[in-house]
Amino acid sequence: MAKSEANPRAESARQTLRDFLKRRGIKFTAPRRRILEAVLEMEDHFEAEQLLFELRQRGERVAKATIYRTLPLLVDCGILKQVRFEVKQAHYELCFGENPHDHMVCSRCGRIIEFGANEVIELRARLAKKHDFHAVAHRFQVLGLCHGCANQCPAAASIEPADRRDA
Ligand SMILES: [Zn+2]
Ligand SMILES: [Zn+2]
Questions:
Q1: How far apart are CA 71 and CA 77, in angstroms?
Q2: What is the H or E stretch that residue 150 is in?
Q3: 93 and 104 inside one domain
Q4: Which segments of 60-127 are extended strands (E)?
Q5: What spacing in Å lies between the alpha carbon of 80 and ligand 2's midpoint?
Q6: Which ligand is nearest to the CA of 100?
Q7: What is the distance in A from the centroid of ligand 1 to the CA of 144?
Q8: Which among 22, 43, 95, 121 could bridge 81 via Cys, Cβ 3.0 to 4.6 Å?
Q9: Looking at 49, 73, 98, which one is the last position of a domain?
Q10: Tally of domains within the chain
Q11: Cα 50 to middle of ligand 1, angstroms
Q12: What is the mean pLDDT of residues 6-11?
């Protein structure tokens, strides 16, 4: 069988998804399994369309609608993380068994800069403790301009960020 059969991370991701779907009364169908297999091999950030392309490349026939319905389930069970929230097309990345990191997104060129999330996680733990909340994940994203765009667009870069928390 495929090498992922022997891969403990893939096996444990399958188990996670299987248990999660069971709790929600959703069937772990063959297309969902194929989507998971492909997701586990995606590198970097991707959109649903890229995953569809990847599946087609492998000769897998999975309905587009099934992909769009399965991705949020993979986010909810902690296998994927949604990377961008401010654009129509959600961007995802694999976070199962990865080092936690967050993102800075350039609003001009779309460049994504990753940074280790340990400090954010410490803050999260502190806030959760204060509010007696059991935190399992967070959404944190820094919007702005990358170095190159800030140089090309000094007017935009000099806008006082003040209190833009709405992004
Ligand atoms: Zn940029
Ligand atoms: Zn990332």
A1: 10
A2: helix 147-152
A3: no
A4: 80-84, 91-94, 101-106, 112-116
A5: 10
A6: 2
A7: 8
A8: 95
A9: 98
A10: 2
A11: 22
A12: 83
